[in-house]
Amino acid sequence: MLRGIRGAITVSANRKEEIESQTERLMREMIKQNDLDSETIASVFISVTDDLDAGFPAASVRKIDGFTYVPVMCMREIPVPGSLPLAIRIMIHVNTDRSQREIKHVYLEEAVKLRPDLLDN
Fold first, then answer.
1. Which residues contact 82 (CB under 8 A, 6 or more apart)?
2. Cβ pair 34, 5 in contact under 8 A
3. Is 89 annotated as a binding residue?
4. Across the chain, what does the average pLDDT equal?
5. Which domain holds residue 13?
6. For 80-112, how does the pLDDT look when each residue is reduced to its tens digit (9 = 90+)?
7. Which of 17, 29, 67, 109 is least enclosed by beta carbons within 10 angstroms?
8. Which residues are part of the catalytic machinery?
9. What DSSP line would sit under the chain, residue for residue?
């Protein structure tokens, strides 16, 4: 079964180092909480808000052990007025036997506002 695992994090400023370090932090937390092995990951999509253009978040994911050959793609988030600024979102597509309820979606920093319904899960 192919499942999606969602995650999001915010940065304090449009700086390459922070974009890359926060992306790596989020990705590692998603891997940890879901006990992922890179061999089971089909792909990773990363979106950023319009105010983030100082670096490629995918660069930090490709540096994680085992992710050299995992397809990773960056894109822009839809710029909806009033949406959360300085946000990085990740969608991991993983082959797993886990049910939807067993998947742990990860929201860090100000991004917890995106899915308050998942805070207690």
1. none
2. yes
3. yes
4. 95
5. 2-118
6. 999 999 999 999 999 999 999 999 999 999 999
7. 17
8. 6, 62, 74, 77, 89, 107, 115
9. -EEEEEEEEE-SSS-HHHHHHHHHHHHHHHHHHHT--GGGEEEEEEEE-TT--SS-HHHHHHTSTT-TTS-EEEEEPP--TTPPSSEEEEEEEEE-S--GGG---EE-GGGGGG-GGGTT-
Residues comprising the chain, all counted:
121
Q: In degrees, to the nearest 5, what angle opens at C-alpha 46 toward C-alphas 11 and 27?
A: 70
pLDDT of residue 120: 59
Whole-angstrom distance, CA of residue 74 vs CA of residue 91: 11
Surface-to-core class of residue 27, CB atoms within 10 Å of its CB (0-12 exposed, 13-18 middle, 19+ buried): buried
Residue 50 CA to residue 109 CA, distance in Å, equals: 18
pLDDT at 104: 96
Query: Per the structure, how many domains does the chain have?
Result: 1
CATH, residue 109: 3.30.1330.40
With 0-12 / 13-18 / 19 or more C-beta atoms within 10 angstroms meaning exposed / middle / buried, residue 7 is buried
